[in-house]
Amino acid sequence: MSPDPMHDQMSITRRHFFGRSAAGLGGLALAAMLPRPALAGPDPAALARMLGPHFAPRAKRIIYLFQSGGPSQVDLFDYKPRLNKEHGQQLPDSVRHGQRLTGMSANQSSIPLAGSPFKFRQWGGSGAWVSELLPRTASIADELCIVRSMWTEAINHDPAITFFQTGSQIAGRPSMGAWLSYGLGSDNDNLPAFVVLVSAGQGGQPLYARLWGSGFLDSRYQGVQFRSGKEPVLYLSSPDGVCGSGRRAMLDKLADLNRLQFERELDPEIESRIAQYELAYRMQTSVPDVTDLAAEPDEVFELYGDDARKPGTYAANCLLARRLAERGVRFIQLYHQGWDQHGNLAGAIRGQCQETDQASAALVTDLKRRGLLDDTLVVWGGEFGRTSYCQGKLSPDEFGRDHHPRCFTMWMAGGGVKPGLTYGHTDDYGYNLADESGAPINPTKDHDTPGAVHVHDLQATMLHLLGIDHERLNYLYQGRRFRLTDVHGHVKRELLA
Description:
By secondary structure, this protein is of the alpha/beta class. The protein has 2 domains: 1-51, no CATH class; 60-233 and 287-495, 3-Layer(aba) Sandwich (Alkaline Phosphatase, subunit A), CATH 3.40.720. Helix content is 34%, strand content 14%. It contains 14 helices and 17 strands. The strands form 5 sheets. Strands 1, 4, 5, 6, 7, 8, 11, 12 and 15 form a 9-stranded mixed sheet that branches. Strands 2-3 form a two-stranded antiparallel sheet. It has a two-stranded antiparallel ribbon with strand order 9-10. A hairpin with a 2-residue loop joins strand 16 (474-477) and strand 17 (480-483). The two termini are 28 Å apart.
């Protein structure tokens, strides 16, 4: 059973009431007159959450490979030969329909179509179209559930990435990992339920700790960032001269003081502080063990690539993600920056793919051969896609692509999704979502449009695979019940195995 902050809050309410009551029968009489929910413990939604998953889960954990910046779908997964045929021609008004462009290309006097400079071919028994930039990912095409019909309302990086991570474009909500930590807890008492890994040395759009924060949930549910180097978790190691028994004695005394403060102030964050101190103490042993890749055999490093031997690289973090998954970490969020190719797309995206392609495929392969892929959901994608028209001057070597929220591609593997599936359609220009006939569709008028997958649909589907009804995992805050999917979201059952 996972910790329940709502139960803590109800307990505090009862203590607070009896502690402040005048005494005896008068207090009891007043208690009897109060509304029953105030004294009866968790409400039905909280009670349902306390009992574990709402239904049998297909997955136990998620590894989310977030490609920050917005990978270009028309250069990686969404093959559009018409763009090459009409390369250099203007984007037709009949396709754009006056849709808003970002400030970076809205003032261009010309909006020429830009065909992909990379070759595509079909792979595996599924026949998935994948670019030459991703040969290792293409080799596992039959394991992938490729979603080409993702869409979002956000058109700029910060609101778009915040939307994917928290379900809102406005900062301050709990992140997905925090929701899962709150709802399901951890399978390993010696490691956090939610771990964050960020590729070292990558430029690009900034990442903020609030992206893995707990928002209005208890702070114990926020993500814990693991870094490369001698100290993977900051301030975890004991100071010089402090032995294990001394550390234990200090924590015991500190816990006693915190409990005294809690009885006086009734602040639930004090109990969270105690819990986090205790977890940090246990992590002094567990973190060095899980982050030490030296014990991995050479063939594992060959699978993930040479970069896996370099701490902090994308490849090393993918390998570390597998080790964390083996040890029961519930949600592993890996961020890789640099996919924001407004210029020099041909060279920049090639470099990004070289850094990520082999390790992404290796992670799926490694999980499968260890029997972990069936109950581990792997998710790959960014905050939006890129335009099918050119930003800046159209030239073979220097052209770029602007942000494009109207249609883009992500993929998933394992964890109960349908392998070998390519889902959804876009028009011949890769500009709008389309139905099976190729006719454009506009899901902004109806979030339940068949074939379209909104951000909240993806989140609802991910929660469903973990056995969670996204409408029932909620939290009462400032008079309103909040959830990851806000007031939208549909489970896309077509994606489920």
